[in-house]
Design goal:
Layout (H helix, E strand, L loop, with lengths): L8 H13 L4 E6 L3 H10 L8 E6 L7 H9 L4 E6 L10 H18 L7 E5 L5 H18 L9
Parallel strand pairs: 1-2, 1-3, 3-4
Bound molecules: FE2/S2 (inorganic) cluster (FES).
């Protein structure tokens, strides 16, 4: 048996998809008050953004239950972006700080599920920062392209 034939099936499939030009599926949870408006501004300003992202609007990043992130990954998202108001600007006072505190734990949970913690990203982008939101999406797409497909999302 060769070393290649001993590789897990998912790793082999990941390499195959990478070779074909892997385009990651990114789910972005954006707070209504800042980042969603920032994403909207990016669109209306015609900023160039990779088409890989699907945005889910939430009232506040503090409302994002960790299970939302894990479910997205389990259902095939290759990466999850969480984007909210800058610290001090949260419309619910400290929701973003609660998310920030959860994020380290979330990364550990993702890692213990056998995935790279870099598949999730937390960023702050205000309603006036369409460029910041766009750069965050680009960074996320590049990072996940390097990691390859989420094995949980691959199907035959
Ligand atoms: S309202 Fe934007 S992070 Fe809380």
């Amino acid at each position: 048996m060769t070393a290649t034939s001993q590789e897990p099936k998912t790793a082999t499939k990941s390499k195959r998809k990478k070779a074909k030009g892997f385009e990651p599926r990114i789910v972005a949870f954006c707070c209504n008050w800042c980042s969603y408006a920032g994403a909207d501004l990016a669109g209306t300003s015609r900023m160039q953004m990779p088409p890989n992202v699907r945005i889910i609007r939430v009232n506040c990043t503090g409302r994002i239950d960790p299970s939302f992130i894990l479910d997205a990954l389990n259902q095939g998202a290759d990466g999850v972006l969480i984007s909210g108001c800058h610290p001090g600007d949260c419309h619910y006072s400290t929701g973003n700080l609660k998310m920030q505190a959860r994020f380290a734990l979330l990364q550990k949970m993702v890692e213990s599920a056998g995935l790279e913690p870099e598949r999730i990203r937390l960023q702050w982008a205000s309603a006036a920062e369409g460029d910041v939101f766009t750069e965050g999406v680009k960074t996320m797409v590049e990072t996940v392209k390097r990691l390859g497909p989420n094995p949980a999302g691959e199907s035959d």
